[in-house]
Design brief:
The complex is a heterodimer of chains A (111) and B (214). With 111 residues, chain A is an all-alpha fold. Chain A is built from five helices and no strands. Classes of the chains: A mainly alpha (111), B alpha/beta (214).
């Protein structure tokens, strides 16, 4: 076995998304077999158009599956997710480089 | 609630031309949005997320599986216990899966080689092997492992004798497989720790063989 293993996740957001899903499962928000079935269906749908390489496209399918599941459960509706995403984008664009990025106070209150 | 500091600050010190923080990719922002929403609703504990990431980035990996294989090679009683109820053995070793899945160990013999795939998505024994490699999650592997296993094995550099048959196991959310590869020749008298070093991740998926000691 090589002494330096491959990184578990290629991108920080892959790790974050994985952790979010595992945590939601462990706290009982959904059963893992249900998750696997939904995720398998998304992968199959994506794979119809082109062969997925198991990298970024795999986690894109994962994200889409989680967004749909949370929307169905009502815990994160699409409009909510869209506006919080936009708030984070504003926060990044208005934070000087090198400083920690936080949501603005007005966004914190609005969302 | 106080605003939470971003944990994935870009550290792009070579480029000081950015007036503002580097904008993460669209999916990264969408993940952040979900996390923010769920945290505010009390459905997610950010510290628990960090714990999950730390576990899979730093603490869980193929060395757990290699330990199981090396013990199986060394101890008949352990091997018998694996055959009866591998899930229970994993529980005792602390390698129990977090998703409550059953673990089944499939042991290679000179007449049967085992290999594992998940045709549905990418079910994998995380607690024993860590996060699956990209190829395990690819459409190519997922569709071809069942259809033409020998060809896939050849691409991994594994050439089996013609008399060895190949058995492919399809993982599910409920059952995850760990392949016990053949113990290499010339390893008599080696300790469990020494043996474990010969057990590669791929040999426990069945797309490789255990290494022969130098």
């Amino acid at each position: 076995m090589p002494d330096i293993p491959e990184p578990a996740f290629a991108e920080p957001w892959h790790a974050q998304l994985f952790a979010l899903t595992v945590h939601l499962n462990e706290s009982g928000r959904f059963a893992w077999p249900d998750w696997a079935e939904r995720f398998g269906a998304t992968l199959a749908a994506h794979g119809l158009a082109r062969d997925l390489d198991g990298g970024n496209d795999y986690f894109m399918a994962w994200l889409e599956t989680l967004e749909k599941l949370l929307a169905e459960q009502g815990s994160a509706l699409p409009e909510e997710a869209g506006s919080v995403r936009a708030a984070w984008e504003r926060a990044y664009l208005s934070t000087p480089h090198g400083e920690p990025v936080r949501l603005s106070e007005s966004d914190e209150q609005a969302i | 609630m106080s605003p939470r500091q971003d944990r994935h600050m870009p550290h792009d010190h070579s480029d000081h031309e950015h007036a503002h923080a580097l904008l993460p990719s669209d999916p990264a922002l969408r993940v952040k949005a979900l996390e923010t929403i769920l945290t505010r609703k009390g459905l997610v504990d950010p510290a628990a997320l960090d714990e999950v990431i730390d576990t899979y980035e730093n603490r869980v990996g193929p060395k757990n599986g290699a330990d199981v294989v090396a013990r199986a090679w060394s101890d008949e009683g352990f091997r018998a216990a694996l055959a009866v109820d591998a899930t229970e053995v994993m529980r005792e070793l602390g390698y129990y899966g977090r998703q409550g899945e059953h673990i089944v160990c499939t042991e290679c013999t000179p007449s049967v080689h085992h290999m594992v795939v998940c045709t549905l998505c990418s079910c994998y024994p995380w607690s024993l092997l860590g996060i699956p490699p990209g190829w395990y999650k690819s459409d190519a592997y997922r569709s071809r492992a069942v259809r033409e296993p020998r060809k896939v094995l050849a691409e991994f550099g594994v050439a089996l004798p013609p008399e060895t048959s190949v058995r492919v196991w399809d993982s599910t959310a409920e059952i995850r497989y760990l392949v016990i590869p053949l113990r290499p020749a010339g390893t008599e008298g080696m300790s469990v720790e020494e043996l474990a070093k010969l057990v590669t991740r791929d040999s426990m998926i069945g797309t490789g063989l255990a290494r022969v000691p130098e």
